[in-house]
Amino acid sequence: MTIGTLAKAAGVNVETIRYYQRCDLMPEPEKPYGGIRQYDERALSRLHFIRSAQWLGFSLKEVGELLRLDDGTHCDEARGLGESKLLEVRAKIRGLRQIEKVLDGMVRSCLSQSNITCPMIASLYRD
């Protein structure tokens, strides 16, 4: 398939594929003399892998590391990367819960007071 067909099948932009190639995440097939590069199902599978890993929060650098570990003999190292990402996600969730609690209090302060200044906005000015 052409790069355009590959991009459409993967739900990405052609420039995304080219960027992944520049980052060494996607191989660039040989271009036949006077022809167009052709991509196979492995390229589509690799794009799905990259996008799935990104959705889980892995950076492109981490995705590259996961791809390098994909030979069936590095499961412990891959698990380590997964565990590290899981700790990051849990920390973000804790932070988001704290933000939720503060915002909830701020919104409630707006409902309970009828001052000239908005209590929520005023609270953002406090040190």
TrEMBL record:
Transmembrane segments: none annotated. The keyword Transcription applies. GO terms for biological process: response to mercury ion. PROSITE patterns: HTH_MERR_1, HTH_MERR_2. SMART domains: HTH_MERR. Keywords: Activator, DNA-binding, Mercuric resistance, Mercury, Metal-binding, Repressor, Transcription, Transcription regulation. The keyword DNA-binding applies. GO terms for molecular function: DNA binding; DNA-binding transcription factor activity; mercury ion binding. Gene3D superfamilies: 1.10.1660.10. PANTHER family: MERR-FAMILY TRANSCRIPTIONAL REGULATOR, REDOX-CYCLING DRUG-SENSING TRANSCRIPTIONAL ACTIVATOR SOXR. Mediates the mercuric-dependent induction of mercury resistance operon. In the absence of mercury MerR represses transcription by binding tightly to the mer operator region; when mercury is present the dimeric complex binds a single ion and becomes a potent transcriptional activator, while remaining bound to the mer site. This is Mercuric resistance operon regulatory protein. It comes from Marinimicrobium koreense.
